[in-house]
């Protein structure tokens, strides 16, 4: 089985990505680590516990990581994901926060990478703060990973949080910079533009959330708020790729589960702008190899939507 470690800032699409991973028969999720991002850290922890409960997978251990970025001010995306990060839907049966493991997420990341050296796939769908800390704590951390899948950044300087910046990278630019510089394992990046171009039709979405299972209904409820925003953000979506449903984190997860969902990619050195007045947090593709860095990343540039849909559908069955 593939061994997964998932690092999330559990908003709605992180929830979807987790559900996809735990539904994949050839995947074993060893742990989920939490980072502040879409919502504050305590909410992230609670949200992951809720998602695992819906999936009957509460045995998967969940760890609390860092709640604030390395250097900048904390931002969130509550306008989109809701104040609690999962669409502000009341849940009387939500598991208590005492179910979070005592050990720190970053300690556990380093431990798991050491224990499963060469076998662990890390999927990061939030700001990269925990990953940046892990490489500081153990510089050999990246070399112990099998591979890394990131949702974040942008490939054509189109942003969703600032004019040029995607949320996860803008939320902690220093962390994103460190990870893209220091991670030597094969690294795959699902950018904002890649996500938008891999949108699914609203007709498909409506069928998907109305499948009638407990998981589909959970997804329908937590997505209700953000999809209202998405469906009305017509101009943005039309500019990028036409109207449709976009589940950013799910593209990174799908590629980790089945690499063939990624139909093409650009192999290049990537970095992050840290100082620009308008461009702080923007991902930069070094296509002319100016930086002369050995560790290239694969920037996803094509998704097999038929395969992707099957993974999405299986995740709510
Ligand atoms: C990313 O930011 C968050 O809103 C999503 O969960 C995703 O990880 C998209 O920019
Ligand atoms: Ca996320």
From TrEMBL:
All residue ranges annotated as the Inosine/uridine-preferring nucleoside hydrolase domain in the record: 5-309
Protein origin, superkingdom: Eukaryota
Signal peptide range in chain numbering: none
One of the record's GO molecular function terms: hydrolase activity, hydrolyzing N-glycosyl compounds
CDD domains per the UniProt record, alphabetical: nuc_hydro_CeIAG (cd02649)
Family: Belongs to the IUNH family.
Protein name: Inosine/uridine-preferring nucleoside hydrolase domain-containing protein
């Amino acid at each position: 089985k593939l061994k997964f470690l998932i690092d999330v800032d559990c908003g709605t699409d992180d929830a979807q990505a987790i559900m996809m991973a735990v539904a994949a028969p050839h995947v074993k999720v060893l742990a989920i680590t939490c980072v502040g991002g879409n919502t504050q850290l305590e909410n992230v922890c609670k949200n992951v516990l809720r998602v695992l409960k819906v999936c009957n997978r509460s045995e998967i251990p969940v760890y609390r990581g860092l709640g604030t970025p390395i250097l900048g001010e904390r931002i969130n995306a509550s306008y989109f994901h809701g104040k609690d990060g999962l669409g502000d839907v009341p849940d009387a049966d939500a598991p208590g926060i005492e179910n979070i493991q005592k050990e720190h997420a970053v300690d556990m990341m380093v431990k798991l990478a050491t224990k499963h050296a060469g076998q662990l796939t890390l999927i990061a769908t939030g700001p990269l703060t925990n990953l940046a800390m892990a490489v500081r704590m153990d510089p050999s951390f990246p070399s112990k990973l099998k591979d890394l899948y990131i949702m974040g950044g942008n490939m054509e300087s189109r942003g969703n949080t600032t004019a040029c910046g995607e949320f996860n990278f803008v939320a902690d630019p220093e962390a994103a910079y460190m990870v893209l510089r220091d991670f030597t394992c094969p690294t795959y990046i699902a950018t904002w533009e890649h996500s938008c171009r891999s949108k699914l039709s609203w007709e498909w979405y409506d069928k998907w959330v109305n499948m009638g299972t407990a998981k589909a209904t959970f997804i329908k409820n937590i997505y209700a708020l953000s999809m209202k925003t998405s469906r009305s953000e017509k101009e943005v979506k039309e500019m990028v790729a036409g109207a449709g449903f976009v589940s950013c984190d799910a593209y990174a997860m799908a590629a980790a589960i089945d690499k063939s969902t990624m139909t093409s990619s650009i192999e290049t050195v990537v970095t992050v702008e840290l100082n620009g007045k308008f461009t702080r947090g923007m991902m930069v593709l070094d296509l002319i190899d100016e930086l002369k860095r050995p560790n290239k990343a694969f920037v996803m540039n094509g998704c097999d939507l038929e395969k992707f849909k099957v993974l999405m559908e299986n995740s709510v069955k």
